Records
---
Amino acid sequence: MSGGVRHLYVHLPFCAARCGYCDFVTLVGREGEHEPYVEALLAELALERSSLDRELDTIFLGGGTPTYTAPRALERLLAALPPAREVTVEANPETVTPRLAALLRRAGVTRVSLGVQSFQPHLLHALERRADAAAVRTAFHALRDAGFDNISLDLIYGVPGQSASDLAHDLDDAIALAPEHLSCYELESKPGTRFAHAHGDELARQAEAMEGYFEQVVETLTHAGYRWYETANFCRGGVAAGGRDLRSRHNLAYWLGRDYLGLGIGAVSTVGGVRWRNAPKLAAYVAAARAGRVPPREVEPLDDDVRRRERLLLGLRLDEPLPLHGVESALDAGALARLERLGLAERRGSGLTLTRRGRFLGGGVTAELIA
Ligand SMILES: C[S@@+](CC[C@H](N)C(=O)[O-])C[C@H]1O[C@@H](n2cnc3c(N)ncnc32)[C@H](O)[C@@H]1O
Ligand code: SF4
């Protein structure tokens, strides 16, 4: 039986250390638990398999640090996953050796997303990162040498101690590597965390500079020939892309409101109008798998209004018009007319898109549009 879901997310939570700003579901070390965890992932996959299509479009291994997972366990997992057109693995630079790059390639991985964050020593220090700029370059070249022709770099801006000129250097250093794809995120820090406490005043100063940084990122990367296809995401286009569409197919599926299955602790799934989130506890996850049960999870049926609003919120992050069919009732017609007059949104055919100025204002414009 094939259930039609074509996008699979797999969460690998283990990391060598915890970076101060990180709010993902992660576990430090736990080497002895990597194999049992992968075993549990495969048990969850077997239980959910009927919801997956016979042919998958995308698989995304996210973390945590998937490439910190014990190589044997990682290899076993990759071998057991169904084939897919795009298979992405997130990697931390210090974990990428020629051997690991070859393992990923052999196992059918098509795309690697490298967590760079910055090339500047003082910013890497503030973020509590382990890899320096030299390690990033070594990792990047190891991936290229292994044959990867689709590499993405993650950068973060608004870091304590950062200036516009630091950001310019980070962008230049990233562009110099000529990656196919770049994700540039503004630093989010949860109030009340150790990180927020340690950098309080400086984070407030950075928050004031954020709008300017965002424009700097977009201006620099589009000038360098990257397509600004989603609020925080850029890919090579035109001749440099050699006719390939280098957008992240997996993340596009989220932004276009497609169904996806998520495996692992803390993983979220949205299938057939129902969303569930697995509990973030490793022991309970492994125990459920051993007993042949689905892991503990929170289940939330999504009503049509919520789905339409999500479609708008996510779809308007993209540079291509969002087809309005089916989402009109979530739109505030008065607000749309006003935003069109202000040159922030425009209707193109039967679709709706934000203008360049509207995209800079982003979430604020979309929030106004929603009825
Ligand atoms: C799931 S994370 C982890 C990937 C990988 N373990 C790493 O550290 O490079 C994926 C990306 O989210 C971004 N990220 C993580 N925490 C963030 C935060 N607090 N604010 C903004 N971006 C963040 C980083 O760019 C990171 O590379
Ligand atoms: S390595 Fe990545 S996932 Fe792990 S704590 Fe650091 S930012 Fe978070």
Note: The mean pLDDT is 95.
---
Amino acid sequence: MARHDYSIRPEPRFEDGAFIPSAPLPIVLHDPDDWSLRDDIALMRALMRNAIETTSQTSRSQACVQGKLFGHEFFTVADPKLIQFIFVKNHTLLKMNDTRQRILKPLIRSGLISAEGEEWKRIRHLLTPMFTPRHIRTFSKGMKTTINREMPLTLKDGAEISLTTTMMNLTYEVLSDALFSGEIDDDKSVMISDFDSVLRTMGRPDPFDVLKFPDAIPRLTRIPGRRALHRIWTRVGQAIDKRKTKEKSGESFPTDFLKLLMEAGDETHGPLSSEEIQDQAVTFIGAGHETTSHGLTWMLYLLSQDKDARQRVEAEVDALDVENTPVDKWVDALPWTWACFEEAMRLFPPAPFVSRELTAPISYGDRDFKGGDNVLLNLWALHRHYDLWDNPDAFVPDRFFGKNRAKIDRFQYLPFGLGPRVCIGQRFAQQEAIIMAALLLRDYRFDYTGDEAPWPRMRITLQAENGMPMLVSRRG
Ligand code: HEM
């Protein structure tokens, strides 16, 4: 059978009135007896270049697919019941997958995303109260102020912009205001570009990780990002030190994440140490600004192509009384806008891979998993599964609109993950996304100007390879 041609990039198109964005074709895995080192190498190169390009046809059409890379077995699961069985009912038998940890640990040390076991339990317990609806509502006023302040600075009528950069700036501003009340703002653009360069260089698997070489052997692909990473850590550390000094001198602060982190603690371990606060702060920025930003960027691209859907969004946001509608009611007040955002995250899940390793055997039906097996929840495959979705590659916000939303199984749409390790920032992200979508689309229109269709590329998060060029027009 012919080998997969990774260079094919299908043109975006309309079919039966629905827009189908350009996206990698699923690979057809050929006969395992015919599988050779050449296939391993091609797969490994694709994995490093852009992991979603390795999504197979079978993982989009079957419940569970067994794969092999350089002799290491893994399972891609895409059946809602099986997903619930493994990731929720048997979560105590899961540990973080080695390759994932090798990518994340150097970036965020013991931040909540990479912490495990008792350490994870303690930190999750301490951080959960920071994300209650009450606190998230408190942040909403700041979110609106930040977005209203920043939008006119970057979005000029007739300007050609990189939407990726613009949205990253906006979501970074929102997060840094929520985290530090602006106290880390001095070199915002350096911080954002440092995060970008860290993800570009360090946010993907190195061949040595996949081959399970010992950590003592340096990963050459990661070296270029190290300096940027060091700068991020230093700046966050300095912001924390500055706050501690000010606090000692009796200054008071608004309720921001840093204040909440400094107040967090338990009887056994006392308060979080400066180092632990730093780990969580870097994690919040790392996990929180790119994801929301890419979700919104893909949404605006899809709306720039589907003009009818955009018109409906514009009518909805124009009708919203921005000043007097409480922010936690915006999702209900803007059901079509929200459906468009959910649909954008279905087609382009901002954090597409949830990977784990089983620590003990489990059986599901006639399928046996061994301890040590790697299980991958590939949200790209799940969200485009042929048996779970009609017209899976098309942008159809209607599936998330009104009564249709209830027809979607809880475990077939999982942009924020699931089980005990579900995204802790989900509410924050949702509130930020609806505020940003409403305020942006009330005042501006975005039209895609790229010569070629944007191509999704995975570097932990799923971004547009070309930075999403857009023409900005002021509305009204
Ligand atoms: C649209 C925006 C977002 C998406 C799609 C998203 C997605 C995810 C996913 C899929 C996970 C699970 C990862 C896994 O199980 O391996 C996760 C975990 C996490 N997210 Fe988010 N996230 C978003 C926004 C945020 C924000 C705004 C924050 C913080 C302010 C945040 C902080 C975290 C943290 C700390 C975890 C780790 C939770 C744990 O392991 O206990 N995320 N996120």
Note: The two ends are 56 Å apart (CA to CA).
